[in-house]
Amino acid sequence: MKFRYPLVWVMALLLFVSCDDSTATLGVDMMPTTDFVVKNYQTYPVTTQSYPVGDSVLARTSMSYLGRFTDPETGTTIKSDFLAQFHCAEDFALPDSIQNDSCVSFELKLFVNNFVGDSLATFKLSVYELDKQLDPNADYYTNIHPEDYYNTDSEPLATKWFTLNDRTITDSARWSTKYSNNIRVTLPSQLGTKILRDYRQHPEHFQNTSTWVNSGNPCSKGLYFKLEQGDGAMAYIYVVQMNFYFHYYDKEYAKDTLGLCEFAATEEVVEATRFENSNLEKLLDDSSATYLKSPAGIFTLATIPADQINVNDTINSAKLTFNRYNDAVQSSFKLNIPKTLLLVRLDDYLNGFFENYELNDSRESYLTTFDSSTNSYVFTNVARLLTKMAQEKKDGTATENWNKVLIIPVEATYDSGNNVVKLNHDFSMSSARLVGGTNDSVNMEVIYSSFNK
Q: Mean pLDDT, the chain, as a whole number?
């Protein structure tokens, strides 16, 4: 009898069958049945309270604010006015043929980018000349004291009653593409004449902003735009111009021409806005909720129960949700909802988070935006923060505020790749009432993973 297959094939077949019977569960048999990974879902109560800002936040913004507005939802009132310097371009020059070296008119224009409230509300504005220079290298806060920078016994350079909807111009001019909404204030023309004549005698005073500020010229140290009276609106001022006009002979066109010289309050110089909030006490005392109110009003302080976290397990995710109450009052002038929020550790904020130009790092600071579909703000994964807090508590390095975080309305600037490149306080008029307070808690959802032991 002969075999149909070589002996080596048969032996290989037997070996394969033998291995199939004994090694199919080799990996499982080698692992103890008690070592499978299991996931555990838990919720923790996070206590929250309203945190008063005290009108003092870093005023690092390209906008200035002017007005007084009472929130119809909460009854709180905010008032704002500002100080501003003016930029002198390095290529500054005036024509040689100005008639009599005289200014024919001198004015200020405050260009309004947006506003909150009633455009027909009436306000009184006074403009004072600063006698002390604002330091371009200093940080200014929203509780700045203007009286430190001008003589309170002096007369204003000008006074203006205005509405944000300028009723002194025609409708056709208002809707013209060349028109930009602005508050126009007339200054004494002799001040412009003094500037023109100083330019003739001391052109070195106009080499740059630094030489201009120290020149001793009218308005060279800056101006204080003081709100005297009015309520009902808040204007967002994106540019302030100081313009003076003169007649000169235009050699190119061989005719007399009206000339214009501009100095502008821009990001190159100091603009310092002062905010005053009132009637915030009833919001701070409200135990049924917490509040977010900008600018320079109220943050929300949250205490994270990090001492309940098991640091021996891995935190896969941790979600913190702040639900918003709907508005209880219907009004045409109600405030917007804060768009973007920053979650940052309290100590980091107190130690100069904004002053040091810090950004959210997804470890100890996080950003989120308002979700209109759920009417909430959701910080989707703060797991690294929980782990760090719990570890600090365990190894004895925790501070007094180790488990406290602030929720702050912010304005985020992004680059072309959608990366955050700058964070500032939100200076828009906004307000939100959040679920929480001493009568209710915010739930934090945590998912752990660990070996089943």
A: 89
